[in-house]
Amino acid sequence: xxxxxxxxxxxxxxxxxxxxxxxxxxxxxxxxxxxxxxxxxxxxxxxxxxxxxxxxxxxxxxxxxxxxxxxxxxxxxxxxxxxxxxxxxxxxxxxxxxxxxxxxxxxxxxxxxxxxxxxxxxxxxxxxxxxxxxxxxxxxxxxxxxxxxxxxxxxxxxxxxxxxxxxxxxxxxxxxxxxxxxxxxxxxxxxxxxxxxxxxxxxxxxxxxxxxxxxxxxxxxxxxxxxxxxxxxxxxxxxxxxxxxxxxxxxxxxxxxxxxxxxxxxxxxxxxxxxxxxxxxxxxxxxxxxxxxxxxxxxxxxxxxxxxxxxxxxxxxxxxxxxxxxxxxxxxxxxxxxxxxxxxxxxxxxxxxxxxxxxxxxxxxxxxxxxxxxxxxxxxxxxxxxxxxxxxxxxxxxxxxxxxxxxxxxxxxxxxxxxxxxxxxxxxxxxxxxxxxxxxxxxxxxxxxxxxxxxx
Length: 456
Fold this sequence. Notes:
This protein is of the alpha+beta class. 31% of the residues lie in helices and 24% in strands. Helix 5 crosses helix 7 (249-270), helix 5 packs across helix 8 and helix 7 crosses helix 9 (286-294). 36% of the residues are buried.
């Protein structure tokens, strides 16, 4: 009996002990792309991947087949339809193989195909983003990206959060820092009747929904026009931004901790093959590192305490430490790796280095903000309790010479049933970097957009 199967289904059936389905399978039909094809003159082996699973299926064809010479010529990258006998191979490297009876060539792949070599640099692969999903590293990254997206949604949906699609086109700067992409049709008049930009955050818009639904989140693209060439910055990236009403900074940190641990658990459970690949090929400490974070208690430390520890550490940092500075990565990593030896929230930052919407503390100098620092990368998540007091927020915007006309709606939220609320932002692409050990944000995005780079 001939059964159409996917490679994922074959692995699940084969590995899951004694199943009725496995005993009933005799001949299978597979469709996919050739990763490798080699033969020794009497027997040939094709590694086939159909996109449903990270691992390949091994197809075996012998010289007994009349088309042996033809099959041996099928090149890497070609699309084929294969029919063969399903055979369990418990003592081999792979749990099963397919003994070929017939192969149909669906789509040939000519000799200019750039992935015929087994190894290419990440830099080279960025030049062919339309083909790099076929390479093992990027196949694993982009599959993990999908799985991690699901983890984010399941975490919030299971707790009753409402998913809000905040606008990509906006008339205000959410961070108060400029560096936005202006939208223009090239005509003199403004298409939307005023200057508009690509959003750099969905936070301000999602706050309005938190004051109706209580617990909400937005998860979508954001844009920054910073002329940055670091491995951690991209002009287009994705942000996870939840907002919770009737909540303070402590509630916010608890939510962050729960989400990070949930996501780590989720990818370790649902992306085992991919995580094993990253652990073997990208970062030998990958699984151990994130498992330790999952099992850790997230400590708390104030910014002022961190400054004192850094100043008294006896370490000569590249940049001297002083109260009021924005910590560099070297400072963040020292705190979480050398002092805490695990994840830590730094809280109560100086107001002058944080966004205008963060709640002013009673000391008048700091705000109820937090950054989560984790070993290996430093800052992973930033959050805060929002300023819910109209007069305080109004005064702060005046201090920063902000255009309140475009943000009057945001101020109105404070006088129309406003309440204590908090939220945070997680850079999704950077989270992928952390989970995998990949050290450049360009290699976590399907089509990276960075300074002087917009291939396709």
